[in-house]
Amino acid sequence: MLELANKQVLVIGLGGRGLAACEFLRRSGAMVVGVDRANSHDLRRDADRLRPLGIKIALGVSTPPEGEFNLAVLSSAVPTNTPLVEAVLRSKVPLISELELGCQQSQCLTIAVAGTNGKSTTAELIERVLLNNHRRTVLSGDRAHPVCSVIEQTKDLDYLILHIDCFQLEITEVFRPSVAVLTNLAPDQLDCYGSAEAYARANARLFRNQQALDWAIVRSETLARLRNLHLPVPAKLITFSAEDRNADLYSDRGLILSRIPNWSGPLLDLQHCQLRGPHNAENLMAALAVSHVLRLPFEAVGDPLKTYRAGPHRHELVAEINGVQFINDSKATNVDALRQAIHATRPGADGEPNLWLIAGGKDKGLDFQSVVRPATESVPHGVFLLLAPSPVRC
């Protein structure tokens, strides 16, 4: 465990994760300086909250502050190619992510969920199953619930569940989850990574430090892609897929089936579940696989999975008026998620197109041609895409 007391620590980026890192470091006895290249009203408000704790804050800066630092902690919202971060790297100060800082201090086993789509749903399914089986757990990792905000709780937990993205994994060095779930690697964040291969390599860091006694639960198509890129997965493997019937967990005619030794046969009837669509079948498979490796009794796993309802903005039925369903799927932020949403939408009579689609947001350098055909097959009159320029970092 990294010793923090009396260390001089620089925190770069003061969004939710950076704020949590500042507060945790100060509680651990570190001398903390927090910096951000922005200088917004919200940041100034947060700075006013941190300064009474003895944390020095500098806003609107593009170069590191003067002084000697033992450690730098980077919020995943800050790109590594900014002048501020590049200057820290040149200074040879050790640089780690907020994720790595928190996990180095964690005192319980870690279950990490990563991938392009399905992270939130899969992580929540795992949390629901664990709580239903009286396991003490907390779900963390996203901007609203940073890892550093829950570290003190881990001494009383059985498992810490982490919902994490490629940016958090990008600068990890020793991060090692006991159970790692990688959902899929649909094209995303190409404006930041430049290529699908670079994006895949960033996500593959999830498995980098795992060992033979750990578990990796991976969509079979994702595993094939990692192997094509010669990216190793050293842990024990369970694969899942809604399309590959050779996977350890797969779906057939509305059933989730297993071919895992001593756990083979039908596990779940999707007609009895609240979640719909092949992508959600895979989320359920991943949660089932986690419950298996944690040796939870199967009879206590099925009900929490069947009754789970997806959270807000995930193909959420807002209203139905005169037979017309209004669906909010604003959590779908890439082309693959849009395609999955179209497939999961109720078909029209005799297969006729019945969907009006309004889409907008950041294009992230993605190719929309792959979604044109399924959209035109389902959408009767047109697709409205309102695209804003891609940000430097999402």
Outline:
30% of the residues lie in helices and 22% in strands. It is α/β, with parallel strands linked by helices and 394 residues long.
Per CATH, the superfamily of the largest domain is: Mur-like, catalytic domain
Looking at the overall shape, the CATH architecture of the largest domain is 3-Layer(aba) Sandwich
Instruction: Give the C-alpha Rg.
Output: 22 Å
Determine the N-to-C terminus distance: 30 Å
Label the overall shape: globular
Low-confidence parts, pLDDT < 50 over ≥5 residues? 381-387, 389-394
What is the CATH class designation of the largest domain?
Answer: Alpha Beta
Number of helices: 13
- Measured by DSSP, the beta-strand proportion falls in 15-25%
Q: What's the count of strands? A: 18
Written overview of the protein:
Helix content is 30%, strand content 22%. With 394 residues, the chain is α/β, with parallel strands linked by helices. The chain folds into three domains: 8-93, Rossmann fold; 100-306, UDP-N-acetylmuramoyl-L-alanine:D-glutamate ligase; 316-388, Mur ligase, C-terminal domain (Protein-Tyrosine Phosphatase, Chain A). Helix 12 runs parallel beside helix 13 (369-378). The two termini are 30 Å apart.
